[in-house]
Every structure is written in structure tokens, then in C-alpha cells.
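Figure 2 data, in text form.
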Amino acid sequence: MRVSIFAFSVAVVVGSALAQASEAPTGAGSHRHGERLAQRHGKASFYDDKFQGRKTATGERFSQEKLTAASKDLPLGSHVTVTNKENGKSVDVKVNDRGPHVKGRVIDLSKKAATKIGITPEDGLAPVKVEARPSSQPTEELKQAVHEKAESTGGVIEAEGSSTPQ
């Protein structure tokens, strides 16, 4: 009798764990908390100094000393995490401009943001993963916009001319 109760208890625990694992999201663009992320894979570059003080797409003045970025398609005002695939360093930035306008590039960073993930003026570029999490957005409108972007693209967009996501 003890053996059958023990076996039943083990089966219940294992079955419960398997059921939870099957409900967890898998694949590109997913997150362990069940939230689909808007992801981009490609190259990151940083703004030239000639843009210092110029107005961005949001109307803000660009500053190399702020943690900001330009994206072709992520919503203006959204907050994203940029991770350098070569060294694993990440930085959180606010998208306040449009760009980059170069094939294979997915994001332009301020120098402060680029430096935080190890992009130097000598290198100029790095392979990156850009992630926008709906729940991390500052407004309900941005949460919805990022959610819709993630859902409409299946979560991941790879820049034209870039390598396979890692």
C-alpha cells in the first residue's frame, strides 16, 4: 500500500510539472513569463556627433549622454533592451528617433548606450538582439503598441543582410 501511495504521489508531481512546462511559451520572441517580446536581430551602430542637439522624431533634442536609440519600426517612446551578442552586455534605452537607414542595421544608439554594451568608436558596429517587452513600457498605449508589434511579427524580425539570430 505504501508503495502505491508513493508511486501515485510521484506521478502527480511529475504530471503537474509536465503540464506547467507544456504551458510555458517556447520559440523565438517568447519570454519565460508568457509574454511575447518584439525582437530584432542585426547590427547596432551609434550616432555620429553631428546629430548632437538636433531634434529627434519625438521632438526631443538628441544627446550623446542619454540612453536613447533610433529604430525603424519600434514605437517611438518605447523602452527596449539591447544586448551585444559578442559579449552579453545589455543596456536599456528609449526609442526617440527613426533609423538607422543602412541595410543590416536594426538600431542606432547614443554613444553612452553604445559604450555600455562595448561598442567603441574603433569598432563602430556590433551584432545585437533588441527586445521590447510590452509590460515594461511606460504607458498603456505603448504596452499595446509593442504587444501588437510582437504578435504581428511572431516576435522576431531579422534585419536584411544580417546573420541568423543566436
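Caption note: The longest strand covers residues 38-46.
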